[in-house]
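Please predict the structure of the following assembly.
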Amino acid sequence: MSFVNKVLVAIGSGLKHVFLVKRFTLRYPQQRSVLYGDGYKYDPKEGVGIAGYRGRHILFTDKCTGCSLCFIMCQGISTAIEMIHLENIQVPVNKKSNFPQIDYTKCVYCGFCVDACPFYALVESNEYEIDAYDRESLIFTPEQLAIPPKTPKGTYDIEYEGGAHHRA
Amino acid sequence: MSTLTISVGPQHPGSGHFRLIVTLDGDRIVDAIPDPGYVHRGEEKLAEYRNYIQNIPHFERMGLHDANNMMFAYVNAVEHLMDLKVPERADYIRVIMAELNRLIAHLYYTAITGIFVGHSTMFMWPVGDRELFIDLAQMIAGQRVSYAFILPGGVRNDMPEEVKKKAEKACDYFEKRLVEYDKLLMNNPLFERRAKGVGILTKQDAIRLGVVGPALRASGVKFDVRRNDPYSVYDRLDFDIPVSNDGDTWARVWVHMEEMKQSMRIIRQALKQIPTGPVKVNLRGQVRVPPGESFGRAEASRGEISYYLVSDGGRFPYRLRVITPSFRNMIAMPYVLKGMVLADMPPSYWSLDYWPVEADR
């Protein structure tokens, strides 16, 4: 093939996509991609995790004993977890009322705090939209972590026929 | 003869904070001296104060879109010293994740090659197609880039069964796309004139300088850790190692393109062969490594990465030495860049797949 021919082939392969192939850009706030599962969990008896997206944590304050294992694990990774004392939550398993507080300006979402918890008290959810106008709002207290997030379900999945695009 | 010395960088000349001191005679490059160290974080020293699990998120940050391969060599070293045999299913999941990572990293490489030769479409397409494999990796490991997924004893969670169907579809789709990439970039005469015969690294130089990875294979040396020193289940999988004898910029991009095809081949085979069973050895409590020394290596997307681990039996490693592929490829830069015009420097510099964060660690 000559020089001109090859250039035309290159331009043609690009031009085809302007008219023929559907594109797979998501119009994000209205459309969301589907996440598998409902968050990463860990089964300390079996010693394996349960597949899922690793987003914002959920703390079950009725199960947390305040043992600080998540805090100790996080000390070597991102120092995002801090144990704080709360008067208003009284749980029989947690005599001293110590609960983890997570600073999302530092958290790297590795999920090793979930792996460290032997009491099924800490899991991760599908929530990935954690935003605020100031840094203080990103520090989640145990009460805030206890509330499960209300993330809208993803409605768009990738379809591969006729070029990859999102199916409604 | 009067020359001009200019400083390319350190504010993000291409892939990160790194400086290249280039001496010019007119428009020709007389000398190019790499000046690394701007993103040095002391990962090796940090590792001495963290236990074997806490080290995982730290070492991943060397090559973020190659995170799984960064950890593969680490777990090889740790498991060798612990004398630990991981379940077979875990091995296959590791290989699938490693090859998905290779695809993600190579697609990023292709995209940046495109933008460095001024080809915006070739930047947009690979970045878009990369999302397919990121979606797959996210389904398995739960994160888009920083997986923290493989750890001593296996992998963190089981692979969902839906991955099989989705991965087949993504591979089918992407194979068609690679034909279009060839039309748009590899056989495009405008790119051929920019890349063919430019930035030649001879076979002798590549061996003498200790270059690794795709840059070595593009210079005609058939060396791949997956084949020459098989780890995990790579010895049971059938794949080719693309080798080119040209050693120029075009050949290095071509090797990356061919490796993507081989990665898809490996993923398809691994998904067929994968057995059922447990995915992790339940180690109970902290990972304790008996005293001793071990060496683990793996083929990351940029080349061979190796860890040298010395343990004294404690909670933390006594010493953990990391040698990354980018660090070993950096020394080839003066040899590759000498003699070319300055306008050809960005694509040739990038064709070595140099990643400052990984090199400085």
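The mean pLDDT of chain B is 87. Chain B has 15 helices and eight strands.
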